[in-house]
Amino acid sequence: MDPPSRRARRSRDQVTVAAATALGAGLVLGGGGWALAMRDTGCDGARPSLSVTADPALAPAALAAADRFNAARDAAGQCASVRVVAGDSGEVAGVFRTARGTPDVWIPDSSLWPDLVGREAAGKAPSVASSPIVFAVSKATANRYRTELERRSWNAFQQGHGTPAFHLRLSDPERTGSGMASLLALQASSGSGKGALDRFTTVLRTAKTLPYGKGLETVFGGGGSDESDVVVVPEQVALQRGKGDAERTAVVYPRAGTPYLDFPYVVATSDAKRKRVADGFLAELRSPRTAADLKRAGLRGPGQAAPRPLPVVRPGAAAGIQEIWRKLGQGLNVLALIDPSGGGTPMPGASGTRLDAMLKALSTGFTLVPDDSSFGLWTLTGTPGRPYRQAGPMRELGARSQSGGNQRLTLQEALEHVRPRSGASTGLDAAIEAAYREVDRNYEKDRLNVVLVLTAGARGGAERTELGRTAERLRGAFDARRPVSVIVLGFGAEADPSLRKVAAATDGGAYKIDNPGTVMRLFLRSDQLRVCDDPRCPE
Questions:
Q1: How many CB atoms lie within 10 A of CB 162?
Q2: Residue 403 belongs to what H/E stretch?
Q3: Do strands 447-455 and 386-396 pair parallel, antiparallel, or not at all (unpaired)?
Q4: Three-state SS for 308?
Q5: 328 and 527 in contact (C-beta within 8 Å)?
Q6: What one-character DSSP code corresponds to residue 458?
Q7: Which of 73, 192, 350, 432 is the most buried (most CB within 10 A)?
């Protein structure tokens, strides 16, 4: 029988070969589905063993570093102590959410992941490697537009910012750090203040995601790409493209700056002995020998900052950008409630009345949203005991009706019968609560479920009191796991404070509408209804 030291040396040799093979072959970032682990080193199991899960992009270099680290400890009589497995960063983030089977050390591709799951504040864990996000384009595009694309950088995807209008392709932001970082760079390039959300969502509406685990070949491999296609990927992916891809594609570095994948070293164990081992392994990962392994894998060492880093990683950024991306993928499930009280008042800055503006906005809006969006229509009557009536039930706009038309036509016809009401408004509180219950009853998962209130006038004192009570009741009824939100559109005037409270109680919003075109843009770009938390952002 071999002595333990010989078994350890043979195992170490086998692992070294495996690591060298993986480093030489290269990796496609985000593929996942494979693992590397330290073999049995002949230890008796009594010594502390550190489990490390590294993103597939880094795992081969981490495995080689672990082999050297364990060899040094073995030579010093301390036995091997580090085991490395490869784990997709998004999938491991899910493991940390469940808090079951978590590794002692986690090395995801970006600091956005540990911040997302509450393991480490963004940017606090030490970096062990880096890879800037770059633009991969066809050789023809590079020959004609490289200088322009470098100069425009992340603004290249904004409408009206030059020719051509480049089309964005990026990794899935829900599953990759590069996808999240790319969205944050786009958000930063959209600026702030009036129009920023419009610019940002305009880009996202035309962006396409790469199939998960696939690389540049999905865009440039079949010859179907054009000069407007720009694939946003980590530099490692761009450098490790296959021979055919290399002949067809080129890499462009955004001159104005770009986010970096920073591969943070997150120590998750609370065991003091394992922490000491983790500190020693971190030193090996940041050694010159590992730097050479990183270079062979297409990665950079930490702190190698060229092109200029774009600082998009900050606490809460990952959760915020994933929420925006998730909302953008939702459909609409809306019950519109028209309050015609005061609707005969002229609409400031436009011809016609405020009710005319409401009806025109809805009529145009119904034609702009897709057939699979669900809409219903109620109107406020002010009649005691039944202050509202159903003008159209909640159905998909493309659903056929008994008359041979569809839901869209039914709602258009119903709008023609809405008339303004004079005198004090009554019953809006009861109507909103009933509409809230109706949307909740017709709740559709993965859609934006909304009570859309269109109103023209201020509320009286008694009604404000009742709406305040409504806000409290809806706050108690609101369930963040299946949210129904109230969105108030105030035509010609700011929404009454009491209505703003109702909206806030349901994670909704209140908007001042100065002209019907504002609402038309909201319907046309309904993603703004999904992601806007600022009452003025659609203006």
A1: 15
A2: none
A3: unpaired
A4: coil
A5: yes
A6: P
A7: 432
What is the architecture, at CATH level 2, of domain 329-531? Answer: 3-Layer(aba) Sandwich (3.40)
Q: Please, which pLDDT band fits residue 13 given cuts at 50, 70 and 90?
A: very low
Is residue 320 within 8 Å of 188, Cβ to Cβ? Answer: no
Q: Residue with structure tokens 């690591």?
A: 19
Q: Who's near 10: CB < 8 A, 6+ residues apart?
A: 2
- Please state which of the four CATH numbers 3.30.70.20, 3.90.1150.10, 3.40.190.10, 3.40.30.10 is assigned to the domain occupying 4-129+262-297: 3.40.190.10
Q: Which helix (H) or strand (E) holds 135?
A: strand 131-138
Give the integer Cα–Cα distance in Å for 143 and 246.
Answer: 14
Block residue for tokens 């864990």: 125
Pairing between strand 229-234 and 131-138? antiparallel
The 10s digit of each residue's pLDDT in 478-507 is 998 899 999 998 888 888 889 999 999 998
Taking alpha carbons only, the member of 247, 365, 293, 258 closest to residue 67 is 293
The predicted-structure confidence for 40-61, as pLDDT tens digits, reads as follows 445 555 567 899 999 999 999 9
Structure tokens at 173: 């932001």
Q: Tell me the HSE value of 415 on the side-chain side, using a 13 A CA sphere.
A: 21
